[in-house]
């Protein structure tokens, strides 16, 4: 049996229920404050970077004006440290009055006016990780209603300062409470990350029924070693994690740090490629006001975005770990297409890796290849023919692969353009 066949069966057999709020049928995309801006609340001395309404308005402007929204980056998400240290007289959360003087409904309106969505952060527990008021079990319904009243579109519910029993009650309770507001609100659960990310403590069937996405593992930091440790954990545990994902329910390996300080261009391409293979949410945490052009090109690459957003919604896998330090990843896509990533962990020089599609378990036939980062079509390849890819140190070669005849028709149907919903990546029509 081929990989493709194995996968299709897998995808169908685990195609269980997703949280029924109609949201996030493909992995959500947008911007999230935490990794880059953390809990910087010093607006007196650092007004440009502190957690304030100005920061989120700036990012909304950039998403709307610099071509991000059209590519699917639609969420503008607040993380920790937005709130006042006290709830209001009615026991409702309230933003810090100095840093969010216009209030959250005004910010939501600002974001919505630009065709974007606003996400907010809460924490199931006595306090947030940053020490702000948490959402204890008795406050779940109140906070869900507050967020809905404010026009919030997504909630990240962290899990600091609660124990396993409270989390087991609280995360499903919040899911019900959000539903009861009548407002569709995407729901990101940090629950599994607090329980080690693996069964038996974590029940991924349940998570898929109550959350749209979930953080399985620790926070990303601004370094290549952090990206690598996260990718390793997700692919080492792919037999458990891969079947948990599907339309409306996604594993979340955390934010994209492309455009920050820790990654080279090759490493940026690698993070983007591996996140696309994982069908991961694509939340950038960077400063969109001063992004360099090479990071922008990686984050706005239409091919890699289309692979991430493929409507089939099947998470990919690592196929091979070679002694040489090369790893091969694969993700099945709609229209009998697939994505391949050749990744090198080497630290010496570009490595010439030789293989064939047959060795990667492709069915017999001729395949068209589109190189995602070179942005060009390669010569068609027969499954049995050996080929060589040259992979930079800590870099990737990423291919969009499709059977020679079939996609030709799709290419004519869809043309080279890429749309946010329901469409797929179609290679240039000159193929
Ligand atoms: C609430 O759940 C019901 C049943 O699962 C679903 O039909 C409805 O769309 C949900 N509403 C919201 C706002 O999530
Ligand atoms: C969890 O915390 C609650 C208090 O909120 C306490 O009653 C309960 O015993 C704790 N459970 C465990 C397993 O520690
Ligand atoms: C996991 O959750 C599902 C759905 O709620 C449930 O049917 C199943 O029994 C749970 N599995 C375990 C091992 O608890
Ligand atoms: C190809 O399939 C064979 C037989 O199922 C399996 O042993 C092998 O690991 C697969 N190779 C890859 C690269 O997936």
TrEMBL record:
EC numbers: 3.2.1.-
Keyword flag Phosphoprotein: no
Identification of the protein by name: Alpha-galactosidase
GO BP term (any one): glycolipid catabolic process
Gene Ontology CC, one term: lysosome
Keywords from the named record: Disulfide bond, Glycoprotein, Glycosidase, Hydrolase, Lipid metabolism, Lysosome, Signal
Domain of life from the UniProt record: Eukaryota
Annotated Alpha galactosidase A C-terminal domain residues: 313-395
């Amino acid at each position: 049996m081929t990989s493709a066949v194995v996968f299709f069966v897998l995808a169908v057999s685990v195609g269980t229920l997703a949280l029924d709020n109609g949201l996030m049928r493909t992995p959500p995309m947008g911007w999230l404050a935490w990794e880059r801006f953390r809990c910087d609340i010093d607006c007196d001395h650092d007004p440009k970077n502190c957690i304030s309404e100005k920061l989120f308005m700036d990012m909304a402007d950039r998403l709307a004006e610099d071509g991000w929204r059209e590519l699917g980056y639609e969420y503008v998400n607040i993380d920790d440290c937005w709130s006042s240290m006290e709830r209001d007289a009615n026991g409702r959360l309230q933003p810090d009055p100095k840093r969010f003087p216009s209030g959250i409904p005004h910010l939501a309106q600002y974001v919505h006016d630009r065709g974007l969505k606003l996400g907010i952060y809460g924490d199931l527990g006595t306090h947030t990780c940053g020490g702000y008021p948490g959402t204890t079990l008795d406050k779940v319904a109140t906070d869900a209603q507050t967020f809905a009243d404010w026009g919030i579109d997504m909630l990240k519910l962290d899990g600091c300062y609660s124990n396993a029993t409270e989390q087991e009650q609280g995360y499903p309770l919040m899911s019900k409470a959000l539903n009861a507001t009548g407002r569709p609100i995407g729901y990101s659960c940090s629950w599994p990350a607090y329980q080690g990310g693996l069964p038996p403590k974590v029940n991924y069937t349940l998570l898929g029924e109550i959350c749209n996405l979930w953080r399985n593992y620790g926070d990303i930091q601004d370094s290549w070693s952090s990206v690598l440790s996260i990718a390793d954990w997700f692919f080492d545990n792919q037999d458990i994690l891969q079947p948990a994902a599907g339309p409306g329910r996604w594993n979340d390996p955390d934010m994209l740090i492309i455009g920050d300080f820790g990654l080279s261009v090759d490493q940026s391409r690698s993070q983007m490629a591996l996140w696309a293979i994982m069908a991961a949410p694509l939340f950038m945490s960077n400063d969109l006001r001063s992004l360099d052009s090479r990071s922008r090109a990686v984050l706005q690459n239409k091919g890699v975005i289309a692979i991430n957003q493929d409507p089939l919604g099947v998470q990919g896998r690592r196929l091979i770990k070679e002694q040489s330090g090369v790893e091969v990843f694969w993700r099945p896509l709609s229209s009998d297409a697939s994505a391949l990533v050749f990744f090198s962990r080497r630290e010496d020089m570009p490595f010439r890796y030789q293989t064939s599609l047959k060795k990667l378990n492709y069915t017999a036939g001729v395949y068209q290849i589109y190189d995602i980062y070179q942005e060009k079509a390669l010569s068609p390849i027969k499954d049995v023919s050996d080929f060589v890819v040259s992979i930079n140190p800590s870099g990737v070669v990423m291919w969009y692969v499709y059977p020679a005849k079939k996609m030709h028709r799709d290419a004519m149907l869809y043309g080279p353009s890429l749309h946010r919903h329901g469409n797929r990546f179609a290679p240039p029509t000159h193929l």
